[in-house]
Design a protein that fits this description.
25% helix, 9 helices, six-stranded mixed β-sheet, eight-stranded mixed β-sheet
């Protein structure tokens, strides 16, 4: 039912395109360092022309971004596509997607997060193609690569039918260190990771994984690319696990968006939620993100685990959209087993 790409192996070619924002300024050097790291790890790469340009928050026109993406997706030598990072307006590339053509092509891994999750989510919910929510290409450009980033490549190397487990990380980054011309500091791991449960209880739950950056996923609602209700109906016997994170939402935004998703039927057959650490967040008067979770999700009577290693406050775990997940939460710690079946 879920179509898994072939495993990514050493010696394979990774495609780098910018379906949202391109790279400019000091981050060009960091991208060079990331590409060098991938080469040192044993991978070849192809970079499309618009990756290193950025104007009006995008790398190129929506049509050009689509064409560059498809040049990689149709290339039989490219085994995975990893954009440099996310951005703002990937959604305006979606009208150019030829889903019927893509469905006829061999699936290949797409890895990333932030605005890239718009593309991952569309592929999985419309075509049943497994996609990988995890580090961007630029995350390979640190002076010392975090093990969670390298783990993503290990996960993409697994055959269909295999499973992998990830436990909560130990430390996370609250504030970014400055990137300079030739200085690419590693994650600033200053804060202790503590997962939390909305009802303060321990939980175990299972289901098909789907999710991403809520800021951009909610924009799909009501568009021709919103196939979520059909997608989740396939798994009504096993249920769904939603993993979500946000990068620019205040408490009111989080509640309104969760409410919108729920009212649109996206949370039917949901067995539990995982929510990442908040970035760019502030309370709305005396209304907090905890209030948002309780007000939007408590009537579903399913576990809600938050402050998970997911999203814009690194490091993060890798989630496979479409994989069968098994979550265990106990006393501030968590473990997720994902089965690629």
């Amino acid at each position: 039912m879920i179509k898994y790409p072939l495993p990514l192996k050493k010696g394979d070619t990774i495609g780098i395109c910018a379906p949202s924002s391109g790279v400019a300024g000091v981050f060009l050097n960091k991208l060079d360092y990331a590409v060098k790291t991938l080469s040192n790890l044993g991978y070849k790469y192809i970079e499309t022309p618009s990756v290193r340009q950025n104007y009006k928050a995008v790398s190129a026109s929506s049509k050009t971004r689509y064409e560059e993406f498809m040049s990689l997706y149709k290339n039989p030598n490219v085994k995975a596509i990893i954009p440099p990072w996310g951005g703002e307006f990937l959604m305006d590339m979606l009208p150019y997607l030829d889903l019927k053509l893509i469905e006829e092509l061999p699936p290949k891994w797409i890895l990333g997060f932030s605005d890239t999750s718009t593309l991952l989510f569309t592929f999985t919910t419309n075509l049943n193609i497994a996609t990988a929510h995890g580090p961007n290409c630029i995350d390979f450009g640190f002076e010392s690569i975090d093990p969670s980033v390298l783990k993503a490549l290990d996960i993409l190397s697994l055959d269909k039918g295999k499973n992998f487990s990830q436990k909560n990380l130990k430390k996370y980054q609250k504030d970014w260190l400055e990137v300079k011309k030739d200085i690419f500091p590693s994650y600033n791991l200053s804060e202790e990771v503590i997962w939390k449960s909305l009802d303060n209880e321990n939980h175990e739950f299972r289901g098909r994984l789907i999710g991403g950056c809520m800021d951009v996923l909610c924009k799909i609602i009501g568009t021709p690319y919103d196939n979520v209700k059909n997608y989740i109906s396939q798994f009504k016997d096993k249920g769904i696990i939603w993993y979500l994170e946000s990068c620019e939402m205040n408490a009111g935004d989080i509640y309104r968006t969760l409410w919108q998703m729920k009212e649109n039927g996206w949370f039917t057959n949901t067995n539990g939620f995982l929510y990442g650490r908040l970035e760019g967040y502030e309370d709305t008067q005396d209304f907090t993100y905890i209030d948002a979770f309780q007000k939007a999700l408590s009537d579903l009577n399913v576990p809600v685990i938050y402050d998970v290693d997911l999203g814009h406050k690194p490091p993060q775990l890798t989630f496979i959209n479409g994989a069968y997940g098994e979550v265990k939460y106990f006393g501030g710690k968590g473990e997720i087993n994902q089965i690629m079946k």
